[in-house]
Amino acid sequence: MNVGNVGIGGNNPIRVQSMITCDTMDTEASIQQTMELADAGCEIVRITAPTVKDARNLEHIVKNLRERGCNVPIVADIHFKPDAAMEAAKWVEKVRINPGNYSKKFVIREYSDEQYAAELNRIRERFSPLVELCKTRGVAMRIGTNHGSLSDRILNRYGDTPLGMVESALEFARIARDLDYHDFVFSMKASNPKVMIAAYRLLVARLNELDDEDACKGRGGSPEPPGRLGSIAPTWNYPLHLGVTEAGEGEDARIKSAIGIGSLLADGIGDTVRVSLTEDSPHEIPVAKALIENIRNTSNAAHRTSNVELSFDPFSYQRRATEKIERDGVKLGGDELIRVVVRQANFDKVAHKIDRMGDYKPEITYETAQIQEVDPRDENAVAKINAERSAQFVTVTDEIDLPVIAAFRLLSAKLHARHPILLKDVSVGAADLNRPERLGSIAPTPDFLTTLLTASTNIGSLLCDGIGDAILVQGEEAPGQALRLSYNILQAAGSRIFKTDYVACPSCGRTLFNLQTTTAKIKAATLHLKGVKIAIMGCIVNGPGEMADADFGYVGGAPGKVNLYVGKTAVKFNIPEAEAVDRLKDLIREHGKWIEPAQQTAALEPVL
Q1: By three-state DSSP, how is residue 142 classified?
Q2: SS3 for 58-121, per residue?
Q3: Which pTM was predicted?
Q4: How many CB atoms lie within 10 A of CB 436?
C-alpha cells in the first residue's frame, strides 16, 4: 500500500516515521519541524490533531510544505474526536485513529452481550463515514491500539491484555473491510516491551488464522496485495507499524526501543517503525535507521534451522524453569536474579574499584564458572550435557554461524530445562577472547549506538522469551560501559530492577508542559529511589493506561497544571507546575516509598 508517495509493506523497505512536537496551530513551527525531520531521513511525519480547529490547520501546513518542495507524507494523529478525523482526512495522506478512545464514552461498567453489540454498532456509525472518506480520497489509515488506552468495553471483555489490544484493532478492521477499504496498517504499542512483543505476535497469529478461515470458506488467501480494486475478501496480511510508547530518553530509551522493535524485526515482523524518545524528534531517526540496518545485517533468513518446537510461549511471558546452581559464590537459575558475567580480562581492569561501582558490579567471571559451550545443532554434544546428573551452566559457543537469537532459541529448545543458560550479545568467532589488547571482547564497533542496539535486541529479545539466567556483553570494549549496558538491558526488559524506572512519553502538540526539562527535574529528585516506577505523561491521552504498572504518575491536566496519580488513580489535581515535583515527592513519602538520597558516590567511569 502507499502513504502518499511512500510505499509500505510487501517488498518495500522498512520505513522510518516520527512526530513533530509543537502546537499544530503554530503553522510555521509545524512546517519547520516537519522539514527538519524529512532532512534527517524521516519518511513519514505524524502531526497531532486534537480538535477540529487543529485538523483544519493541517490544510495550511500541508500546502506550505508542498510549496516549499517537501513531499513527505503527513499523518494526522486522532484521539477522541471523529469530527477532527473527518476534517484531517481532507488534507493529509494518512489518518491514525486509536480504537480505544475513538468516539469514547467515559463509562466504566459491566457490559452484557446486548450492550456490547450496541456499543459496536455505535462505533460503526461513527467510524464508517471516515472509512468512506479515506476510501474516496485514497487516504491511508493506521488502526493503532495502545496498551494504555483500551476502551472500558474491551477491558470488560478481555482485560488489560495483549488479546484485548488485538481484538480492539480487529473490531475496527472488520468495519473497514465490510466497506471494502483495505489501505490500513495495524499497530500494537505499549511501554512494556514484553506486552508489546506479545501483542504483535498475537496479532500476526490472529491475522494468519483469519486468512485460513477465509480460505476454508473459499473467499480469501489471495496472493494479490490488500486494497486492490474489486476485491471481495483480500488477505488479512496488512502492514504493521512498530513502536514502544513512552520509552523515555537517553540510553535507557534506546535500549527499551531496541528490545521491543528490534526483537520483532528479528522475527520478520514490521513494515514501519518509530522510535519514541523524550528528546527532539530528529534524534529518533538515526536510532530507527540503525535498528533497521542492524536487523538487515543479522537477518535470521540467511541461516535457517530445522523446524524445532519453541521452548516458550511466544504470546505470554514465563521465565524458563531451571535448577539453582552456584558459581563464584553467586546463586543463579530458578527464581534467582539474572546475573551479569564478565571475562577475566575485563574483571581485572575494574577490580581496583569494585567497591565504588555500586549496582554495576560484575558478579561471575566467565573463565571460573565452569560454563559448557555448545553448538545447539550438535546433537551429541547437547545429549552429553543433558545426560549429566547435575545441572550445568550452558551457553552457545562463539564459533557458530547462526544469528544469536536463533542460536539461543535452538539451545533452549534442545537443552533440558533444568540447565541454566548464559546469554551473549554477539557470537564473535574463533579467537583469543582474553588477549590483553582486546579487553575481553572481539571487534568492538567504534559506534556505541550499534553496540547498544545489537546487545539490546539480542539479549533483550531472549529475556522477553523467558530464556536466560545470566548475560555476557562481549561486543563492547570498555569494561565499565559493558557492565552498565548489561544492567540497563536487564532493567529495560523488566528482568532485574536496580534503579528508578521511568516511563516518559515523547512530546507532541498535545503536551501541556516541557517534557524534556520536566523529566530532567523529576529524575534529579527521584533517581535514588531504587525499584520505584514513575510515569511522566504530557497529557491524558495515554496517561492512566500506560501507567498501569507504574507506582506514581505525573500527568499534564491543563496548561500549567499537573495531576498526580497513584497507579491508575488520579489523587492530586490542578497542581501548579512550579510546585508539582515537590508535591510528587510528598506523594511518594505518603505511600512509604521515599528514602532520603545518600551521599553521592563516585560514578562508574568506563575503562577505555
Answers
A1: strand
A2: HHHHHHHHHHCCCCCCEEEEECCCHHHHHHHCCCCCEEEECCCCCCCCCCCCCCCHHHHHHHHH
A3: 0.87
A4: 10
Q: Output the nine-digit C-alpha cell for 427.
A: 557470537
- Cell numbers standing for residue 288: 530507527
List pLDDT tens digits, range 13-29: 999 999 999 999 999 99
Q: What does the pLDDT average to over 45-49?
A: 96
Question: 215 is written with which cell numbers?
Answer: 480460505
Residue with cell 522475527: 267
Neighbours of 299 (CB within 10 A): 12
CA distance 207 to 203: 6
d(CA 191, CA 549): 10
Query: Where is pLDDT greater, at 196 or 430?
Result: 196
DSSP states of 272-306 as a string?
EE----SS-GGGHHHHHHHHHHHHHHT-GGGSPPP
Q: How far apart are the first and last CA of the chain?
A: 48
- Determine the Cα–Cα distance for residues 125 and 132; give it in Å rounded to an integer: 12
Length of the chain: 608
| All cell numbers assigned to 467 | 530464556
**Residue 249 has which C-alpha cell?**
530518553
> How does strand 371-374 pair with strand 364-365?
unpaired
Residue type, 464: C
Cα distances (angstroms) measured from residue 580 to each of 291, 554, 585, 586: 36, 8, 9, 10
Lowest mean pLDDT among 17-31, 376-390, 537-551: 537-551
Give the start-end residues of each E strand in 438-546: 470-472, 501-504, 533-537
- Take residue 498 and report the three cell numbers written for it: 536496580
- For residues 377 and 406, the answer to whether their CB atoms sit within 8 Å is no
